[in-house]
């Protein structure tokens, strides 16, 4: 009777074994155990093959290549899983070290020093010949304007005397307008906020800020 080539898909699926106490364990992710099962299947096939139609060298080579591919992928998967776990641990340690420190994330709220000095930051995509900052209320009412002149590409900052404002300066926002030769230059506002706690979302580190917002670590533009 002719025995068909070994189906190595069974090796990928793994097998559960049960001991006398009724507990079970899986060896599906153990490359050595997979190779052992493959060799047992191969020996059984050789012992039961049709003498008139034996397994030829090409079939043997193909099946050996299949088991090497399967075990190689399993080893790679285990290595990648270990690296991912180590990376996640490093992220959590890094996040804990940020608690109590201030970070920069995208936003247009002013940072205040004792309620008297306001400060804002922004990033210019390109150098700008004219840069203006408007200080506004949440409703968009203009409070003050600052002419910053020409600025280079990259992160910039400005200071504003908040003591002149009669209301609550913590509610104020800022808007940046930049241009060169009449063409607008993209300006991304950054706000400063203290990190109060850390967490994780879909494997990514998250930061809970003093403002109550939760942002991904990838959104942090700098640490102060």
In words, what does this structure look like?
The chain is of the alpha+beta class. The protein has two domains: 9-98, no CATH class; 106-192, Immunoglobulin-like (Sandwich). The chain is built from three helices and 14 strands. Strands 3, 4, 5, 8, 11, 12, 13 and 14 form an eight-stranded antiparallel sheet that branches. A four-stranded antiparallel sheet has the order 7-6-9-10, with no helix packed on it. A hairpin with a 2-residue loop joins strand 11 (187-201) and strand 12. Helix 2 (31-48) packs antiparallel against helix 3. Residues 1-27 have low confidence and may be disordered.
Unreliable runs, pLDDT <50, ≥5 residues? 1-27
Mean pLDDT rating: 78
Helix content: 25-40%
- What is the total domain count? 2
Largest sheet: 8 strands, antiparallel
Count the strands?
Answer: 14
Question: DSSP helix count?
Answer: 3
Spell the H/E element sequence.
HEEHHEEEEEEEEEEEE
Radius of gyration: 32 Å
Overall shape: elongated
- What is the terminal-to-terminal distance? 77 Å
% residues in beta strands: 35-45%
**Helix and strand composition category:** alpha+beta
Provide a brief overview of the structure.
The protein has 224 residues and is α+β, with helices and mostly antiparallel strands. It has 3 helices and 14 strands. Strands 3, 4, 5, 8, 11, 12, 13 and 14 form an 8-stranded antiparallel β-sheet that branches. A 4-stranded antiparallel β-sheet has the order 7-6-9-10, with no helix packed on it.
């Amino acid at each position: 009777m002719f025995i068909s080539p070994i189906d190595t898909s069974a090796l990928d699926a793994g097998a559960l074994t049960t001991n006398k106490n009724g507990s079970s364990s899986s060896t599906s992710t153990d490359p050595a155990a997979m190779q052992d099962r493959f060799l047992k299947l191969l020996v059984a096939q050789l012992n039961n093959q049709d003498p008139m139609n034996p397994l030829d060298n090409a079939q043997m080579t193909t099946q050996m290549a299949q088991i090497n591919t399967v075990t190689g992928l399993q080893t790679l998967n285990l290595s990648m899983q270990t690296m991912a776990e180590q990376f996640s641990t490093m992220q959590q340690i890094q996040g804990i070290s940020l608690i109590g420190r201030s970070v920069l994330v995208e936003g247009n709220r002013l940072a205040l020093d004792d309620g008297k000095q306001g400060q804002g930051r922004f990033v210019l995509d390109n150098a700008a010949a004219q840069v203006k900052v408007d200080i506004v209320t949440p409703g968009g009412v203009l409070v003050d304007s600052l002419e910053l002149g020409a600025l280079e590409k990259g992160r910039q900052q400005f200071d504003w005397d908040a003591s002149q404002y009669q209301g609550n300066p913590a509610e104020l926002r800022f808007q940046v307008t930049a241009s060169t030769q009449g063409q607008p230059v993209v300006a991304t506002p950054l706000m400063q906020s203290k990190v109060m706690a850390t967490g994780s979302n879909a494997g990514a580190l998250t930061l809970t800020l003093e403002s109550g917002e939760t942002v991904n670590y990838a959104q942090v533009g700098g640490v102060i």
